[in-house]
């Protein structure tokens, strides 16, 4: 199984990228590729810019990465209750090329933040919107208070109850994946 994982943040120290990396690592014997949004920086989307430059190769490359996956692990950053500008811009460019950005790939959709809600607002927005763009969301997971509940050095959830919840979700996904 090939997993494409990414965090929806351009931060060099993205907590969402760390969570996505950890979650993807729970799928034993999987080939995991972790994408960095910084590798997909494009001009701010507008129809005027699209008319001027066409569709950026980086957006096409991102869509090809999604196409290569058997499973997606996505953890979204929450900026003012919504997607980060970097993720939204990539999303907008990709949707101009192919409306079903996520290409019916099964997905574990997550969010985390330093706050107690763990990106709940952006997770709710994405859970409602992503299926219209070809996401087959199998499960969602929110990690609240990232700095208190994640061990950055060990790259793992340090809160045993939350870690158990995520591992239970992954086991359920793996079981369902085997039965298809």
UniProtKB/TrEMBL annotation:
Iron-sulfur is among the record's keywords: no
Top-level lineage group: Bacteria
NADPH-dependent FMN reductase-like domain mapped to chain residues: 1-138
EC number assigned by the record: 1.-.-.-
Gene Ontology terms, MF aspect: oxidoreductase activity
Statement: the UniProt record of this protein carries the keyword Ribonucleoprotein: no
Family matches, as InterPro entries: Flavoprotein-like_sf, FMN_Rdtase-like_dom, NAD(P)H-dep_reductase
Protein's recorded name: NAD(P)H-dependent oxidoreductase
Originating species: Flavobacterium plantiphilum
Lineage: Bacteria, Pseudomonadati, Bacteroidota, Flavobacteriia, Flavobacteriales
